[in-house]
Amino acid sequence: MLCPLTAPCICLCRKGAAITLDEIRAQVKQYVQDNNLQTNDKRIVQLEPVLARIVLAKNEYNSQVTWETLNRRVLSKCQSAYEIRIPHREPILKEGAIEPITINVATRCGNKKVTLIHGFETFGIDPGHFAHQVQVGVSASTTVTPLASSNKKWQQVLIQGNQVNFIAKLLLETYKIPRNYVRGLELAPKKK
């Protein structure tokens, strides 16, 4: 998302608008071309007051920077955000980094294992429906409870036994959640 500092450089967007990294880079490149800031060395960009205010630190007085430095510093001034698109619903735009679905395996009385999963809400998955799918799929008891350690209104699903393999298949194949947004897949029981 654009902050007030970067908005003048990225001309076509208003403050707080959500745009992709590629769009930001393209806008910066267009701004440099429109203001004739490209030097003879194609790797170097001349800084004018607007760009200097965005990319230079308070005690820095450079008149030129490389493209890599320019893009990195402009991006560092923007807020990170993500958009979740769920079929038949409006896209959800949220600020900050995306929180992954977390899977834990805990041992309860004796040697009984339970699988705990939370973080569904980020991806628009209903915990009650997910718990029912797991209950039917592995014939195990499931419970949905509020997540105590979270200030968000997240729910946690508790499943009897170590069901990481089934949960991984359900999340990755059925719900099409990218693997890098699911933590705890390494807790699956080893095949004998």
UniProtKB/TrEMBL annotation:
Gene3D superfamilies: SUI1-like domain (3.30.780.10). It holds the Pfam family SUI1. GO terms for biological process: formation of translation preinitiation complex. It comes from the Eukaryota. InterPro entries: EIF2D (IPR039757), eIF2D_SUI1 (IPR039759), SUI1 (IPR001950), SUI1_dom_sf (IPR036877), SWIB_eIF2D (IPR058886). GO terms for molecular function: translation initiation factor activity. This is Eukaryotic translation initiation factor 2D-like. Keywords: Initiation factor, Protein biosynthesis. Residues 101-175 form the SUI1 domain.
